[in-house]
Amino acid sequence: MKKIIRVIINISFIFYLLALVTMLFLGMRSNLWTNLSLIEYIKSSTNIIPFKTISTYVIAIFDGSMNIDIPIRNLLGNLIMFFPMGIYLPYYIKKINKLSRFIGAMTVLLFLIEITQLVSRRGSFDIDDFILNMVGSLIGFVIWNTRIVQKLIKH
């Protein structure tokens, strides 16, 4: 049973990574800023004010100023996208089983992703994406550390 679970986790991890790379870097995104220099693009595509985007989406949900799909997809999508990382990271890297180490590793990983998206012009650097991705991964980490999951993995 343990071997079957390991195989399922390994296969699902490969599919997860492929989906993540596709969503973050290869997805259909129209690049309206191709005529800008990299510095201009970075200035126009960076949000370092925490909760600016999140609050805009939350307000839009309640006041109807935006198609409801947009805020829901962005808020839940960013939470769900890194939820599996909260399980896979401590599964594959045993030293990341402590909360402080997990947060440190996720912080580095998420900042690298945000910076890569920005420099490659495949997205923006949004601190709110970072916050939502981190919360999603922490939810996965908490679930990973439940007795039920740990019993399932060890037996």
UniProtKB/TrEMBL annotation:
Coiled coil: none annotated. It comes from the Bacteria. The keyword Kinase does not apply. The chain crosses the membrane at residues 7-28, 75-92, 99-118, 130-149. It holds the Pfam family VanZ. Keywords: Membrane, Transmembrane, Transmembrane helix. Residues 13-145 form the VanZ-like domain. InterPro entries: Teicoplanin_resist-assoc (IPR053150), VanZ-like (IPR006976). This is Glycopeptide antibiotics resistance protein.
